[in-house]
Amino acid sequence: HSSLRGVLAAAAARVGAHERAGASMGKRKGSKGEKDGAPPSAMSQLDRDFAVSGLPDYLEAQRTRVFCGSESNTSAKYFGSAHTYSTKGFDNSQTWKEFERGLDIRIRRVDEADNTMEFDLVGVSPSFANALRRILISEVPTMAIEHVFFLNNTSTIPDEILAHRLGLIPIAADPTLFKSRSPPSQESGNEHQEDDRDQRNTIVLRLQARCSGRNPGGKHEGNEYGKVKSKDLKWLPGGSEIPEETGVRFTVSQDTLEEFERAPVRPVHDDILIAKLSSGQEIELEAHCTKGTGAEHAKWSPVATAWYRLCPEVVLLREVKGEKAEELLAKFEGLPKGVECPFEVVGGVARPREGPPDLMCLERIRALSGEEEWKDYVQLRKIKDHFIFTVESSGVLPPQDLLCTAIDILASKAGGLAAKLAEA
Predict the structure, then answer these.
(1) What is the per-residue pLDDT for 226?
(2) Is 196 helix (H, G, I), strand (E, B) or coil?
(3) CA atoms within 13 A on the CB side of 14
(4) What does the pLDDT read at residue 32?
(5) How many CB atoms lie within 10 A of CB 318?
(6) Tell me, what's the pLDDT at 23?
(7) In angstroms, rounded to a whole number, what is the distance separating the alpha carbons of residues 266 and 2?
(8) Start-to-end C-alpha separation, the chain
(9) Which residues pair with 67 in a beta bridge?
(10) How many CB atoms lie within 10 A of CB 149?
């Protein structure tokens, strides 16, 4: 987690959504409360939520929130142009310092057992969040099986199908320890010539399985019922056993390196079914892993999926107290264990709990906002620059490492763009 803490330390000061808006926008114009001289207690809920920029309430609401009605959402468009509100004398642009102050990354949870992580990404546009998502999916490098050399395959599965299945098995190996193979050089005149294939850019795995049972579905060596699983893939740290065929020659065994002693190469999961063998059938092959990215093929993608959603926000537009407060809480009875009601009663007055409501409650809140009795009290919103990000790693790397690498790649792209602009 040390590298992740480094990213967080560089992510700028942590501030709340309204504080950020006040710091970056309020300096252009005084807040509405200050302008009118009205004390906070005399301001409406709408005024208190949106009195940060000097824009009319409805425009500030349009700029910063999505309103989730019982039938549909409104104000879902993101207004990123600097001149969107120029007719109102409002500069919608953002300087680097304002971006740095507003950017915040907060880790919600890391589940090492499921290789998942959830974090808040605050103070960025949808294009920024989507760039990070796409980098996680297609540009973080990993190791995956690319070349398969068959010595024997008498199973019912064709070589091509078996090779494809092997390629999709996630391999636990640190990609930073390996180099990418360069594509064939056109200048050399040999379109098939690549970099030397050795321990710096190749991992060699061996699979040998034979079913010796009398009946179909019998036993094979090391496994039952003729099932060939990913645990049958064995790492060959010394390199290929058929170098004349594969062209891969190691000059040093990979297991002599300290990095591999701590974490030997292996499939992430041992129980992935590769094939089923009947009596007398056999599979013998060598599988070679190389470095690549998901942009080239999905087998190199380090995540099962990566997605984000806007942070929901529950608002009480009017004071709810006494019996009506208890009635509001009763609307959320029967929630699953561990899921809190989005409202609490303090001093006889209902108020939203701190933080975003649980996903299990969102549709109840949305439906409640459309009921005649509650539509003037309850409102569900989503904050346009606050994303709740979920990363599900395939297991090849921890999700926090994937996030750090993705941020580094995004920073490198921005640096490259800045350099080209400077040259122009």
Answers:
(1) 84
(2) coil
(3) 7
(4) 41
(5) 11
(6) 36
(7) 25
(8) 40
(9) 74, 381
(10) 17
User: What's the CA gap between 261 and 173, in Å, rounded?
Assistant: 12
Per-residue burial over 189-221, b = 16 or more CB atoms within 10 Å of its CB, e = otherwise? eeeeeeeebebebbbbbbbbbbbebeeeebbbe
Measured CA distances, 263 to 169, 174, 192, 240, 266 (Å) = 18, 9, 33, 20, 9
SS3 405: helix
pLDDT score at 94: 87
For the chain, which residues score pLDDT lower than 70?
1-53, 183-195, 213-225
Structure tokens at 424: 């122009």
* pLDDT for the residue 307: 96
Q: What distances in angstroms separate CA 382 from CA 14, 29, 147, 265, one per listed residue?
A: 20, 25, 47, 44
pLDDT for position 157: 95
Distance of alpha carbon 26 from alpha carbon 382, whole angstroms = 21
Residue length of the chain: 424
DSSP assignment of 206-264 equals EEEEEB--SSTT--BTTBSTTEEEGGG-EE-TT--S-HHHH-B--SS-GGGSHHHHHS-
The amino acid sitting at 363 is: E
Q: Residue ranges of the alpha helices (H) in 103-211?
A: 126-138, 159-167
